[in-house]
Write a structure and sequence with these properties.
about 25% strand, GH92 mannosidase fold, 9-stranded antiparallel β-sheet, about 775 residues, homodimer, Beta-galactosidase, Chain A, domain 5, alpha+beta, 2 domains
Chain lengths: ~775, ~775
């Protein structure tokens, strides 16, 4: 734990009395959230202000790294996927959109930076003081709580405070007396920035307090336009902008001095500034609304969400929103750190997908047209290769209505897709095609399997089927021909085959729920395709070529060129969640499978296997088990399919203890849009959805002492853990409403009836 | 007259029986229109297919000139303002938007080119056969009539036919048998093209016949996006595109082979192609709809305007639309060539402004938001420095409702303008700021003065006042301070001062009509500001400096740096239409003024005075009178304010005879969005609006033998010219309903009562 985390703990101890969980609590659970967790190293979380599932993530930028230097990829940029690195001591400003925990990036829209003194429009370099507008800062003068961020910008003596509603960022800057105070609006700032990322910028100074405009970028989202409306609490004294474009054509705009006090700015690359005079301790506030539809939409959002100027009131309302969300699961833990880890994880599961429509229900679709979200709320940021595993299952447990909205958003995406595909990895009305598979089908199947069917099942099935038949998508054509993806046709072929097979199983489930038994049988057959990449000789999933032969040489520890992505045959090869029993027997039966798992967790992996992958650090690894990458997330629960479920119990507790911590470096890898945190929430409660699309959870070993999950159906699920301690990590027995469970699984429908789930813990493995 | 024009005449003679004008006529007046007129030299008209005031101008591109070569302006580009030059023998394709007659350019959207054989995606150079996809063509195999264009693309043996409705272009290509027929969609083609003009392109192949997408450009219109929906009559066999972008970032799109049969294309610079197999004489048809709102809007437009596939039916309907429009003025002329000149001029007055809204009434506003056009039809392309002079006055005569729609469009522009200004020169939801003054106020005043008040007068007055007070606009701030624009502060200061003074007079008129006498008196005072640039010593309008002194040296024949634009002190200095009497007396009285005019028309101007101006040719000049530029358009009528109105009569006939002709080179300068043609229409009818904003017309010498103007109020104005001939160019007397007019003026309200205006002609000047 870092020094900073210790400070946090000291603060929290004062308000943390290890109080019993109560259904009637008004506990300020937000006080157990530290948005700094994951901001050091590769967690890729952000400390800024946001509401649950809000479109605005108003957060500081400490990274000013270009994506390319002299045409070469700049590796440093990866650290700044969410804009902030805890080890930094400079801030370049505050922008309004950030991913939480992703392993690739974009966004960072509309960077605001308050300064005083000589006007500097370029950000400069952190390593070169005075080279630009950036400010120094210190963590001692920085606060981050749910929905609120504060930092003293020491270079300018400005105290910056941020809060946000769903679509509006609220800035409050306390200046010293100055006749040259500036608010910069750097429209060239981007996360994952490079020279031609900005496509177009358009800004209007509507009057001396209202600015509107938009920016179009081409990055991870290839065709993205974001509109804004920005209001100052005080009239602008003067303003201007600098354009960095080199076009030979100026049109008749050359007739004007556009750079100063000219109310219309347009171009690819623009930085604007607004000048003020300030008194000592004078606060200049900014309300900054976003819309993907229009500036008109942004203005509507602004007026609807923050009509007034009371910063503290909004800050308070936002904290209450967070408490309302966090109270969905109330826990008692053994240590304060565990509680902080838990609620910060819960917080991190609520940062995406985000609401993606204006207050009037209009949103921009994948087809670039504007649509009304009739009958649902539209969401975006679907990091589905990550989040289908535990995040959407978590939503099915604690937020089924919201998850149904997300599914309806995916179906709208499908309707608007020229490929007739559900989202793969989508954000801001764009498909970015990141990672493999089409795991939206898992989200559909999981919801259907858990009775969360506030969407059109037939439509969902049609969407799932069409998605699975787009021949030009990532090896699918060959998969349909060969029954596996041949490595010579499409790389990462084993990962793809395994995931397509699982996705096929999900489609089969959807078909069953829809009463379409023919489709169900077709896809059930496809779902066994994992067999085609299993080499019975080596007992590994291995890449195959289109002539049917196994690719050689073969190294089961290697990721690259060996048929896998973010994993290898040893770990990723265990991905048959839909038929674990079958996998176990293919691999030689329970004992052999257990031994494989043991080896996985204990083997020594040479450094050379890691250096190629930028988002794994040694911290996130146990042997050849990589918790920082998602393909392993179910693995620890696979001992349940052997005779040694106690190994699941010990490993899951070990992972919770060592891979999650209440400190800025508390995440061992990218939080991946909440998936890492959702894994933690489930595991901390004692169960995990090994196979989304099935209503069964695998039981593990809970971290909590007690928990109440307030369900949307009005019922409460009470988890009571007897004899819990850091040493009593083994489960002696589990009782559901007093009746002992015979197998290490529990059914979703049993859970959501409410009642008591009781774990009896012990310090010794319970052998079968 | 060219050989081609002779051919046309031969055709027309067959159907031209010098028939008497009749109110009941069903005459095919479209047969007297030759869209080729003005396509040779600097007329800048286009020969392609369009409906009256339609958004689509589907026309061939013979110019493939970049705007810059090695960073230097390429003068040749100017010849291709409308894409076509009659002397060319190659065609690069057919694009959907063109200005008619403008002296600067933009548009050229969505170029379609049919080819066969080896696929070539680059246009190549006309001078280098085989270097690209262009085709040779010959005027012998080319036809242009209102709403229809046909050409044989000899390189490919393809017969190309085009027609269009308001928002949809209709292509019909007749191929020979080919297994490699292509339809190219060159999204990099632009008029006034340069490397970074394309901002973004987005294309979706929705299915095997429907393509949608948009393109965003930054040119004369700085922030312009145009959407399309395109349907083929036959399924595409295969397709693809080439992207010419150099971005280092490819995103995860690198996973696909995007270039072939991949249904989504996006980037700055794209050329797409669609492959077909064709039989002999097989027709492939394309319907290509535009929208400035969305692809959804374009699709709506397509479905509403051309639901079927009958090319000839649409071609016929469009011709009937033209006939309906052209029949608003029926004329009998002495020669066929005069009739062709007249109806082609009338045709050219109906090519802009164009309808700029979707069939559902939604349009994109200047603020980039989408608005419904409640209560009016929205128009764009306002070349106001040109068109306020005679084109809008012509509309007030023959199309007052449409002119009111245009005014309401201008008021919407004002409402959406961040500058709180009426349009200066606007197109496609952009202000391009071309030329000087803010002559929208003249259009408002002229409509009000003529009782065409289907708009909110108070709103119009507010808009006019605010427009006239935007201090940062083109010298207005100094104009308000000094009472003139000082040349050391803002170039072309005399032109600006004269036009601002006239505009002030228009605002005074508007204020009077609105009953706001205070504003009227303020602006009436401002309207006398022309006095401040009149040097009583030299008797010239001269540039002044901000210290009050006259700029020296002064050359009254020079344009550049002498206070003028597109004119000099000799001709532009005569611009005081609101107080011609006062100008006459300032210049020494009627005789001196008349002598000045005589000199103007007879003096020899050294070549050096012309070479600087790209849009004037010697053909468009009589002495120092430049008919090809608008500041002179009223001058020929100024003899009416002297004792020698007969000189107006002879000069106006001379100009009609020498500056307009029924041949491709029939326009002596840019048609300027119909202004040159509107001058001709008025003059041909025998009167002209010297001072728009006043209901008085100055009488000239009619070209027609007889005319009936069918007015919107249901009445007919009958113009009868007795003793008309090419020699009888002088007016002996003019009778209105049998009563002789005493002065050489006629009032608009007298005209629109209907009845007879009778000119008695003679071969001798009628001296006073």
């Amino acid at each position: 734990m870092s020094r900073k985390a210790h400070t946090l703990v000291a603060i929290f101890v004062a308000i943390f009395n290890n109080m019993a969980v109560s259904q009637e609590t008004n506990a300020d659970l937000a006080s157990f959230v530290s948005p700094f967790i994951g901001t050091k190293n590769m967690g890729h979380t952000f400390p800024g202000a946001t509401v649950p599932f809000g479109m605005i993530q108003l957060s500081p930028e400490t990274g000013n790294q270009p994506m390319y230097i002299n045409g070469q990829y700049n590796k440093k940029v990866y650290s700044y996927c969410s804009g902030y690195q805890y080890n930094d001591s400079t801030i370049f400003g505050f922008s309004h959109t950030h991913f939480s925990g992703t392993g690739h990036s974009d966004l960072g829209d509309f960077l605001i930076m308050p300064t005083t003194g000589r006007l500097m429009l370029e950000p400069g370099e952190a390593s070169n003081p005075g080279s630009g507008y950036f400010s120094r800062f210190s963590h001692d003068q920085e606060t981050a709580t749910p929905g609120y961020y504060q930092v003293k910008l020491s270079t300018y003596g400005i105290n910056a405070e941020l809060t946000a509603t769903e679509r509006v960022g609220f800035h409050q800057y306390t200046f010293s007396k100055s006749d040259s105070a500036h608010i910069l609006l750097d429209l060239m700032a981007n996360i994952y920035n490079y020279d031609d990322k900005n496509v177009w910028t358009f800004v209007r100074v509507e009057n001396d307090t209202l600015i509107t405009g938009y920016r179009q970028t081409s990055g991870w989202a290839r065709t993205r336009t974001l509109y804004f409306a920005m209001v100052f609490s005080k009239p602008v004294k003067s303003y201007g902008h600098k354009k960095y474009d080199q076009s030979p054509y100026k049109g008749f705009w050359r007739k004007f001095n556009e750079s100063e006090n000219f109310p219309e700015m347009a171009g690819r690359n623009i930085r604007a500034y607004f000048n003020f005079m300030t008194e000592d301790d004078e606060k200049i506030k900014i309300k900054f609304a976003l819309s993907a539809v229009s500036t008109e939409g942004a203005l509507k959002n602004l007026q609807a969400e923050i009509p007034g100027w009371d910063f503290d009131q909004i800050k308070g309302l936002v904290r209450e929103k967070w408490n309302h969300q966090l109270r969905k699961i109330e826990v008692k833990t053994h240590t304060l750190e565990q509680k902080e880890s838990f609620y910060t994880a819960l917080y991190h599961t609520m940062l995406s997908p985000v609401v993606f429509e204006d207050v009037d229900g209009n949103y921009r679709g994948l087809d670039n047209n504007v649509h009304p979200s009739d009958g649902f709320t539209n969401y975006t940021i679907f990091s589905l290769w990550d989040t289908y595993r535990a995040l959407h299952p978590l939503f099915n447990l604690i937020e089924p209505s919201r998850n149904a909205d997300m599914i309806n958003s995916m179906l709208a995406h499908y309707d608007q897709s020229v490929h007739h595909m559900l989202p793969v990895w989508s954000h801001y009305a764009n498909e970015n095609w990141c990672m493999i598979g089409y795991h939206a089908v898992s989200v559909l199947a999981d919801a259907a399997a858990k009775g969360n069917t506030s969407f059109d099942l037939q439509h969902a099935l049609e969407a799932a089927k069409n998605t699975s038949q787009v021949a030009y998508f990532d090896g699918i054509g060959d998969y349909m021909i060969f029954g596996f993806v041949p490595e010579d046709k499409s790389a990462s072929s084993v990962s793809k085959t395994l995931e397509y097979a699982y996705d096929d199983w999900c489609i089969a489930q959807l078909a069953s729920f829809s009463g379409d038994s023919l489709t169900a049988s077709i896809y059930l057959k496809r779902s066994a395709n994992y067999n085609h990449v299993f080499n019975h000789k080596s007992r590994f999933m291995q890449p195959r070529l289109s002539d049917g032969s196994w690719k050689s040489p073969f190294d089961p520890l290697q990721t690259h060129d060996q048929g896998f992505i973010e994993g290898n045959a040893w770990n990723y090869g265990l991905y048959v969640p839909q038929q674990v029993d079958s996998l176990v027997s293919m691999m030689g039966g329970k004992a052999a499978f257990s031994a494989h798992l043991d080896s996985l967790f204990t083997m020594h992996l040479d450094d050379s296997y890691f250096e190629q992958t930028e988002d794994i650090t040694r911290d996130g690894i146990i042997g050849n088990y990589v918790h920082g990458n998602e393909p392993g997330h179910h693995i620890v629960y696979l001992y349940n399919w052997t005779n040694e479920p106690w190994k699941t119990q010990s490993r899951v507790r070990m992972i919770m203890e060592t891979m999650y911590g209440a400190a800025p470096d508390g995440l061992c890898g990218n939080d991946d849009a909440g998936q890492m945190s959702a894994w933690y929430i489930f595991s901390a409660l004692g169960f995990y959805p090994v196979c989304p699309g099935s209503p069964e959870y695998a039981l593990g070993s809970p971290m909590v002492e007690e928990a109440i999950v307030h369900l949307e159906n009005g019922k409460d699920m009470h988890i009571i853990v007897r004899n819990q301690s850091l040493k009593n990590i083994y489960v002696k027995k589990v009782l559901l409403n007093g009746i002992e469970l015979k197998a290490p699984t529990i059914n979703h429908f049993d859970l959501i009836k409410g009642g008591e789930l009781e774990f009896l813990m012990t310090s010794k493995p319970v052998l079968k």
